[in-house]
Design a protein that fits this description.
There is one protein chain. The protein has helices spanning about 20-30, 70-80, 90-120, 125-135, 140-145, 150-165, 180-195, 205-220, and strands at about 1-5, 35-40, 55-60, 65. The chain is α+β, with helices and mostly antiparallel strands and about 230 residues long. The chain folds into two domains: about 1-80, Glutaredoxin, CATH 3.40.30.10; about 90-220, Glutathione S-transferase Yfyf (Class Pi), Chain A, domain 2, CATH 1.20.1050.10. A four-stranded mixed beta sheet has the order 2-1-3-4, with helices on one face. Strand 3 (about 55-60) and strand 4 (about 65) form a beta hairpin. Helix 6 packs across helix 8. The longest helix has about 35 residues, at about 90-120.
Length: about 230
């Protein structure tokens, strides 16, 4: 069986990493069974490739594939039916949504969520998580979370997302594709980390989120959440 190494919080069954969720959705889309293996933030000895030290990592027999984009490419090549994208146009749309996440959503959401991930992380991981994220942010987790305007920026970004979803069931049209999985993985990051309502979601986005939670017999909906 395929093995997917998946980042875990203090409760090893709570796995909110958006990049790991991208890989999980790719495998679910093509109908392949896989086993998830929880790994911590700090102890790289538990990773299949210690020098890489990041997840997701997919192991398929003797093959080891690191990084969600490489896993997508591997899954698309080895399990082409049903395709993760069906045309060059769909691939271009995926690239657009990835750029939108990187420019509009992640920079505003991460400072708010990092402090909550830290709170839910295992005690052995907290020092590592704080150090690495604060180096990235250039300030403490608490200072970053208090940055003015983050919530408003997220809500403005979600209005952009609401525009296509007001007309289509999924970002991929009638059926979900990579664009849906990449964007929704960010929502899973929030959902599994905290029960707080961190921002107001447009109705069209909320309805799409419910449809995504129901996919694959409710795989995402049934994922364990941090208490």
């Amino acid at each position: 069986m395929l093995k997917l190494y998946d980042l875990a919080l203090a409760d090893p069954d709570v796995r909110p990493s958006p990049f790991c969720w991208r890989a999980k959705f790719a495998l679910l889309h093509v109908g392949e069974e896989f086993e998830t293996i929880p790994v911590p933030f700090a102890d790289k000895d538990q990773y299949p490739e210690k020098d890489h030290g990041l997840v997701p990592v997919l192991v398929d027999g003797d093959e080891m594939i690191c990084d969600s984009e490489n896993i997508y490419a591997y899954v698309a090549q080895k399990f082409p039916d049903p395709p993760l994208v069906q045309s060059a146009g769909e691939r271009a749309a995926v690239d657009f949504y990835n750029a939108w996440i990187a420019a509009a959503l992640f920079p505003n959401l991460a400072p708010m969520l990092f402090v909550r991930v830290h709170a839910a992380a295992h005690e052995d991981d907290k020092a590592y998580f704080r150090k690495t994220r604060e180096q990235r942010l250039g300030k403490t987790l608490e200072e970053a979370a208090a940055t003015p305007g983050l919530r408003n920026n997220i809500e403005d970004a979600l209005q952009t997302l609401a525009a296509p979803l007001a007309r289509h069931r999924f970002l991929g049209g009638e059926k979900p594709n990579m664009a849906d999985y990449n964007v929704f993985s960010i929502f899973m990051w929030v959902r599994l980390t905290t029960s707080e309502e961190m921002f107001e979601t447009p109705q069209a986005v909320d309805a799409w989120r419910e449809r995504m939670l129901d996919l694959f017999d409710g795989y995402a909906r049934n994922a364990k959440r941090a208490s």
